[in-house]
Amino acid sequence: MKIQSLRGMPDLFPEDLERWHYFESKLTYIFNSFNTLEIRTPLLESTELFSRSVGNSSDIVNKELYSFLDRNKESISLRPEGSASVIRAIIQKKQEHEKHKLWYQGPMFRYERPQKGRFRQFHQIGVEYLGFEEGVSEYELISMVLQINQSLGISDYTLKINHLGDAHAKESFCNSLVSFLEPHANELHEKDQIRLRSNPLRVLDSKEKSTIELLKNAPKFQDFISEESKLFLEGLVNSFKDQCDIQIDQSLVRGLDYYTGVVFETVSSELGAQDAFLGGGRYDNLSKQLEGKDMYSIGFAIGVERIIELINIDDSGKKIKVGFIVNEQQISQKTYKIADDLRSANSCIILDTFLSGGSIKSQLRRANKSGCSFAIIIGEEEFKNNQAIWKDLREDGEQEVLSLQELINQYINL
User: Fold this and answer.
1) Residue-level pLDDT, tens digit, the chain, 414 residues
2) For residue 231, which phi and psi values (nearest 5 degrees)?
3) Burial state string for 164-176 with b = 16 or more CB within 10 A and e = fewer than 16
4) Are 302 and 124 contacting, i.e. CB atoms less than 8 angstroms apart?
5) Which residues does residue 100 pair with via DSSP β-bridges, in sequence order?
6) Fewer CB within 10 A of the end CB, N or C, for the chain?
7) Is 126 left (phi over 0), alpha (psi -120 to 50) or beta?
8) Among residues 88, 167, 97, which one has the least CA distance to residue 132?
9) Virtual torsion, Cα 354, 408, 371, 150, nearest 10 deg
10) DSSP string spanning 193-211?
11) pTM of the model
12) Which 3 state secondary structure label does DSSP give 216?
């Protein structure tokens, strides 16, 4: 029986990764422009990190963690998200008193039913601003989100935002919501009944029609937060409404227990049921939950598998590809120096050498198939005369015989 990849953990082939590399290069440029620096944390962490940060009532901890005992009988887990690891790293380094603008990338793991846009191994790129209290940091992160979408050619999306208030407002709202829903518990979907008992806020995020209908008359979060918080939320909307479709969504709570203050996510109708491709918010209490010092914190994470479905690749800056064809087996090992000189002369061009040989006709077919715009052909006669054939593979392309120096000049000037 052939060994297969694990369910929900797909392979990524070169044709898949072209969009990934485009996406990663765009984001790296944007992060640099905001002076946001990269941090890398381990894939494996103590299970306690996630039970204390994400919350024991969360489905992530109860059902989705990939956890096991190591040789010391300690429970360790593959990370299901990135923020907790970043905060743990800052606490461990005793840098909670400093200000940080950080970004991370890499695979995350959750044991859930695979479906379109949701895998058991998935990838995130995230940003964390640490040490910055509520105010300008929200504006800067939303500005960064808009730049990311614009850079990737994503225009059909909605930015949803909400304010969860402080811990007291959150607790008061939860108590009021539970009091309202408990008499109607039998009308809730079974999954939402469990949420009502373990994490009432998550009921607001329900996709069940019966629950959505019931919530129309439920208490509203906006009635429990301060006027200052309401004004701050409205200020964000007014500042960005000319740049994107931004809406206050009182049902938006995000899926992790540690969020307080402003939360936000971007959604696109092009993605179907799993329509969110970026989400985040403020989590000022997380450092304290992990036995660190008080530290203002806000960030967001991008679901890479989802956002690349929306990317419109700009081919204008794409590298030119040239096929290097040698039609005599006995000279193929001697022409590597010509290929080396060409690559040194212009590193902005992709020079594709067809190492397995074959006839000129078959190699030209491969050059066309691989997207080459030009081909360099060297046979026994050309090699003896220090020459090469330069062939234009585009429509109505021509060919000419060039000296090796002329070839290099042609290559440089592409």
Assistant:
1) 899 999 999 999 988 898 999 999 999 999 999 999 999 999 999 999 998 887 655 667 767 899 999 999 999 999 999 999 999 999 999 999 999 999 999 999 999 888 877 899 999 999 999 999 999 999 999 999 999 999 999 999 999 999 988 778 878 888 898 898 888 888 887 788 888 887 787 788 777 888 888 888 888 888 888 899 999 999 999 999 999 999 999 888 776 677 888 999 999 999 987 789 999 999 999 999 999 999 999 999 999 999 999 997 776 667 899 999 987 766 777 788 899 999 999 999 999 988 777 888 899 999 999 899 999 999 888 888 999 999 999 887 789 999 999 999 999 998
2) -65, -35
3) bbeeebbeebbeb
4) yes
5) 130
6) N
7) beta
8) 97
9) 130
10) HHHHHH-GGGGGG---HHH
11) 0.86
12) coil
Which residues lie below 8 Å from residue 51, measured CB to CB, with a gap of 6+?
61
The C-alpha atoms of residue 212 and residue 196 are separated, in whole angstroms, by 14
321 three-state secondary structure: strand
Q: Which two tokens mark 47?
A: 């299970």
| Non-local CB neighbours of 400 within 8 Å, separated by 6+ positions | 389, 390
- Which residue is associated with the tokens 């193929």? 332
